[in-house]
Design a protein that fits this description.
257 residues, alpha/beta, two-stranded antiparallel ribbon, 42% helix
């Protein structure tokens, strides 16, 4: 990953090297704008509580980190918080996407302890956040975070995403924003994208997490960029962002953040 990061730094451009008006405006609104809000401090206070927790839980792992799907192990809440939670700058960026682009329906695959979910939900109280998590004990902690932050626009789905996502999508209409941070393998990542795609519009935004996490995730990101349904992408190393605007030229950007 260090070698990949060095290559990324060599290729990444600043905003002024971007000639697409749409991507320029998007980057300005989301990444060059860091307004401080009280809710950010509240969410980060919840993160700190999780990172300092002495509690141990039974953790069910359906992702790429497990030797077998649904493997159960004993883990400390603090270790999960330190290993799994996305950094605050990304939570703030996702919050601005939902806020700036008037996102009304969010799909999150991989709730974890609910910190990123909270950033998404607090961006628009009129939006609905549908979030999916495989581990019951982890989801219970996330729901406590939502309650502490008084967030009432989050709908949680517990279970193996391979089973819960197809069932959910049968009754789902349009999805405006998707954050995929669940099973970091090639086949599930592409399968989830294919399942979700019929529910997207030209204005929808999809974020893939950890696109350089493993050789399979690198291949998944390469396949996504080559997908003819995709129009524009932004590679920010830690995440990849996908757009579907047919009026825009088909382009791929590697930008610094």
């Amino acid at each position: 990953m260090l070698f990949d990061y060095l290559k990324y730094l060599l290729k990444a451009k600043s905003l002024h090297g971007t000639h697409s008006p749409f991507i320029y405006e998007f980057y300005e609104k989301v990444f060059n704008h860091d307004q401080k809000l009280d809710i950010f401090d509240s969410v980060e206070s919840q993160r700190q509580d999780l990172r300092s927790s002495k509690e141990n839980i039974q953790f069910e792992d359906f992702g790429a980190g497990s030797e077998s799907s649904g493997a159960v192990s004993q883990k400390s809440v603090a270790s999960i918080a330190k290993r799994s939670l996305k950094r605050a700058k990304w939570g703030r960026a996702f919050h601005r996407i939902v806020s700036q682009y008037e996102i009304s329906t969010v799909l999150e695959l991989g709730t974890s302890l609910g910190i990123t979910t909270s950033y998404l939900a607090s961006a628009n109280p009129n939006a609905t956040i549908f979030t999916f998590e495989g581990s019951k004990s982890v989801l219970n902690l996330a729901e406590s975070v939502f309650q502490n932050l008084q967030l009432s626009n989050i709908e949680t789905h517990l279970g193996n995403i391979d089973e819960t996502l197809p069932s959910f999508l049968k009754s789902c209409d349009k999805i405006n924003f998707v954050y995929l941070d669940a099973n970091h393998r090639l086949e599930p990542t592409l399968r989830y994208f294919d399942l979700i795609f019929p529910h997207l519009s030209e204005d929808s935004i999809v974020v893939f997490d950890d696109i350089y996490w493993s050789s399979e995730m690198k291949q998944a990101w390469k396949s996504i960029k080559e997908d003819t349904r995709v129009r524009q992408t932004i590679d920010l190393f830690e995440v990849g962002i996908v757009f579907f605007r047919k009026a825009q030229e088909r382009e791929h950007f590697i930008l610094k953040y």
